[in-house]
Amino acid sequence: MQPVLFDTDLGVDDALAIAMALNAPELDVIGLTVVSGNVSIEQGTRSALQLLELLGRDDVPVYVGAEKPLFIDRVDAVQVHGSTGLGYAELPEPSMLPVGRAVDHIIREIQKRPGELIVVAIGPLTNLALAERKSPGILNRARRVVAMGGALWCGGNITDTSEYNIYADPHALSELLQALTNLTLIPLDVTEQLTLTEGEIVAACQAHGDRWTRFVQEATQSVLEFEQAQGRAREMHLHDPAVPALLIEPSLFSMRALAIGVETEGASAGSLRVLPEESEEGMSVDCAVDVDSARAMEFLHGRVLGS
Ligand code: BDR
Ligand code: CA
Fewer Cβ atoms within 10 Å of its own Cβ: the N or the C terminal residue of the chain? Predict the structure, then answer.
């Protein structure tokens, strides 16, 4: 089993990704580190604990991370994910508490098993950048760092050109690009090809009728409503579940090493730049550039909506 640590900002698709990874026989989720993003750090931590209790996984420890980005103010996404980050799902008060600080935990867990741990980032990259600041070189001692974020050649989802996770803390990615040689990015270009429809969610709920699929239906409602309010179909993209999908079934994705830069200032802050290979500015990042969406959705459907 591959050990993985999830750094998350607890939105609806984060919850689906985490549940999928916890249920995957291929992965051993050794903990969740929470970062502020979709919701505040307090809310994200509470939702992480509630989610784990819903899944009967109170053995997975939760760690509290950064309450704000490195330099800029926090930009939340409660209009998409709801005020708790879990849409309309209402879960009981958690009985567990977080057990420590995220940055120290990331450093400690990598040190414990050099070259083995995969660090998964499905929120803004603040915690990872702080870990790298505190212990320079630490993240290169992880087996790899796999982040959902950025838009390569497609439009953005928070501004015309920026994807939310990178926009929310562009300086964090900028610092990581200077330091990391083992970074994989799964950008919007790929995750927007992974679409779950309301019909599929309802059908799964009717077929299984269990607590998990009811949770999925309640949680995803707010994303579907947001999409509809934007004039789009009642469908949602499985952004964050793309990361465990890549770890479990890499053949679904086409990968390319690209020299990547990130804008940190001005109107295009958070946008990625794909630079010529010989450029000294961009850092080589293993990027998912395409996905077999039919096969990937079949895979994700079973893993996310299975009871
Ligand atoms: C990313 O932004 C967040 O709101 C989602 O959880 C996902 O991590 C998609 O752009
Ligand atoms: Ca997320």
Answer: N
